[in-house]
Amino acid sequence: MRRDSRLSVVLHLLLHMTELEGPVTSETLGPRLNMNPVLVRRLLGGLRNAGIVNAEKGHGGGWALARPLDQVTLAEVYRALGSPTLFGIGPQRENPRCLVEQAVNRALGKALSDAEAVLLAELELTTVAAILHDANQHHLHGKHKRGNLHV
Description:
Blueprint: H1 6-20, H2 26-32, H3 37-49, E1 53-56, E2 62-65, H4 74-80, H5 99-125, H6 128-140
Antiparallel strand pairs: 1-2
């Protein structure tokens, strides 16, 4: 099964936006993630609607952060992407007739719901700036050899 990497990609984009400073175009951001600029615009569109980024039109325009990253949680970014499914497992059928399968669905449903609540609570506590701090710490301790954070 294919993983939904949008949250990871968008966080990566946000962090590069801080590195590049000022409005940055999709054409500049796309190659940093080996991604088509059209896909970059689609991903950032949801963040614009959530007030995380702004889109400036015209010459010198592009995408810019709407607020500091220490005021943006991973949960906000997750919700801005439409709250993608967190786990790839689930019931075989939603409304089975078999009583055993119904019991399986209840058990899995509860476990998945509990796990999702824990993960979302953690995302709520973590800011995007905390990820940038982690990247900078690794950069400062010699684990990164280039001049910027992009490998």
